[in-house]
Amino acid sequence: MPLSDEEMTNLKEAFKLFETPAGSGSMPVSALGTLLRALGYHPTQAAIATAAREADADGDGALLLAEVVAAVTATAASATGRLTTADLRAAFRVFDKDGSGSLSADELRGVLTTMGEKMSDAEVDEMLAEADVDGDGKINYAEFAAKLLS
């Protein structure tokens, strides 16, 4: 599925920010994940590695705009590329084992250290500290959504 005009405009603006050197018409392949996240996508590290490998066909470590467009288009087409509100609410309900409407540190730790790209205990502690805005030791839905979409 091709990118919308707005998505293409956003992509071109982001590409300009990552051009190295400025105005060169290329960006480092190592910045692809950051660019994708800046555009609102949430690919896994594996998806980023695959997109980077496929986009940098000549292996020179630099991506032209056309190569970045291909990588972003592939990411947009991916089922895991962009989180929706429905996805977030469904995930929150799955993680909220006791149905309390908030995630305890133990509930969140259990999910983040066993599912998907596993996080270390230190990474989970850091995420909890950042996400628990009101400092009650629990993550409510608003905090959960804000952290995942940041």
UniProtKB/TrEMBL annotation:
The keyword Repeat applies. GO terms for molecular function: calcium ion binding. The keyword Secreted does not apply. InterPro entries: CALM/Myosin/TropC-like, EF-hand-dom_pair, EF_Hand_1_Ca_BS, EF_hand_dom. Transmembrane segments: none annotated. Keywords: Calcium, Repeat. Residues 83-118, 119-150 form the EF-hand domain. One of its GO terms (cellular component) is myosin II complex. SMART domains: EFh. It comes from the Eukaryota. SUPFAM superfamilies: EF-hand. PANTHER family: CALMODULIN LIKE 3 (PTHR23048:SF0), MYOSIN LIGHT CHAIN 1, 3 (PTHR23048). This is EF-hand domain-containing protein.
